[in-house]
Amino acid sequence: MARRYRYVTELAKQARKSSRPKARRGRGKTFSPWTPWFVVGPLAVFTAVFLWDGGPPGWAVPLDVSGETPLEQVSARFDRCNGPVRYTCVVDGDTIWYRGNKIRIADINTPELSEPECASEAALAEKATSRLTALLNDGPFTIRKQGFGAADTDRYGRLLRVLSRDGESLGEVLVREGYAERWKGYRGSWC
Fold first, then answer.
1. pLDDT at 33
2. Which CATH class for the 89-182 domain?
């Protein structure tokens, strides 16, 4: 019986030895599964902290879509949009990106910055864009739907929203200062 026991234990030891992975030979080093993390980890942290601007446009932070509850005041630093990745920036006098959502200011129309019909429209579009950027950076504001029954998006897929501060529409400020006109349901000519 003891002989049989020794024989079985010897077989078990041999089976364990043959199933273990063998250390790599060469230069006296063994393989460590953690080695890639010493390269990838710091690179990922650097990218997240210094280079990432919130992700691609599809990673949008959802805004209040129900329209039933008022949105809290939002605040962010806005600059001009440039490059293909847009997260929080100003496109022109009536279009912005906020936290990955493209928003068309619903109550106004401003001159076209991308394809102006004349030099005066281009100059006014530049001024409207600069003024909207300054208004957005002046402090917290609210983003809300137009009202009951109004469209949620336009034909380009932009969210239609009204931006306001202290109960006053930022679009109305642009109209009052001569940089925009009230939205009539179609684009007018600025030339």
1. 60
2. mainly beta
